[in-house]
Write the C-alpha cells for this entry.
Amino acid sequence: MAVNAAIFYLDSRQDYNKMPSMFNLQRTLSSPNHSHFWGPPSSSVNWCETDYNVTSYVAEYFNTVSSLAMAAVGLLGVLLHPWAERRFHVAFLTIVVVGLGSVAFHGTLHKFAQALDEVPMLYSSLTFVYIGVCQRYRLLPSRRRLFATVLCLHAIVTTLLVTLSHGPLQFVLFHTSFGTAHVYALYHAVQVNGHIQQQQQQAPRDAILWTFERGAALYGSAMVCWIVDMTLCEYVNPGYESTAVLPINPQLHAWWHVLASLGLYNMALLTLAARVETRSLRKAQRRARKQAAAQAAAEQASFESGSPGSSVASHSGSDGSPLSDARFGSVRDGGVAGMDEIGLAFWGGLVPYVVVLHNGATGRSSSSAADLLKSSSAYPSYLQ
C-alpha cells in the first residue's frame, strides 16, 4: 500500500503542460476528418503519428500495421526452426505476443492496451537474458532453475510497478526496466558473437559475422528512429506548422517496429548458432570418449590374449579422419567440426532465417544461397 501511495503521489505531481516540447509524451495531434472510435487516449504516451488520420477505427494506423511485423517475425522464428530448443520457441512466441499487444496499443491508445504491449516486451527481454546467460556461463540445471525463478520474480515486481503507475512515471519505470533488461540481453549477444568468432576462427565476411553485423545495424537504425520520433516530433510531423521541416511524416515509430523486429531476429539467430555449436561439440566429445574407451578395451583384450596388436592408440575415426579425445587435446584441435556452416538467406526477399548444415566431418563448407535454400528442410542430426 505504501508503494502504491507513493506512486500515485508522484503521478499527481506531474503536469503534462509543463513538460518540455522536446520530450512531450502526450501529443494531441489528431485528424479532423475522422471520428475517434476508441475515444480520447488514456495511455501514458502518444507517439508522433497523427491520431485517426487514416480511419476512424484505428488511432495510429501506421504504427498499428507495422506492429504486425513483430508478430510475423516471431511466428517465422518458430516455423522455420522447429528443431530449436524450447527456450528459443518461447523467445520467438514472446515476440509474437509483443506484436499483437502493440497492435492493440497503437490501435486504441488505451492504458490497458498499453500494458498488453509493454509487459510482454519486458518478458521477451528477460527470456533473451536467460538464453544469453545460460549460453555464456554454461549454467548447470539447478543454477538455471534458480536463475529462471529470479527472473520470474523480477518480472512480477516490474509488472506491478508498470501497471499501477500512471503518466510520465509509468513511462520512466517501464523504459528503465525494459531498457536495462534489453541492453543486458544485447550485451550477451555481443559476447556470444565474440566467443563464436574466437572458437571458429572465421574469416572476415563469414555468415555468422554477417548475422551479428546485420542485427546490430538494423537495431541501431531502429533506435535512431525511436529517439527522433520521440524527441524531435515537432520537427518531423507537418502537423506542427510552426516548427516542422518535413513535408510529410516519415512515421519513424513504425520503422522502429520493422527494423527492431529484424534486428532482434538476427540476434536470436546468433544465439541459436552458438547453442547449436555447443550441442554439436558436446556430441563430438561424447563420441570421441566412446571411441577412445572402445579402443582401450580392444588394446587391453589384445594384450591379455597375447595376440599381436598396436600398443599405441589410433587417432583415426572409422573414415580415416583424425580424431581427438580428452587425452589428446580438444575435439576442435582433432578436427571434428561442431558446426560447418550457418548460412543466411532472405525469406521472401525480406526476412532472414538460419540454415544449419552439419557434415559430421572435418573443416568448414561454404554453400551458395541456392544450396542453402535447398537444404533448409534438413534438420541437424544432432538436434533430432
The chain has eleven helices and two strands. The longest strand covers residues 341-347. The two ends are 51 Å apart (CA to CA). The CA atoms of residues 46 and 132 lie 33 Å apart.
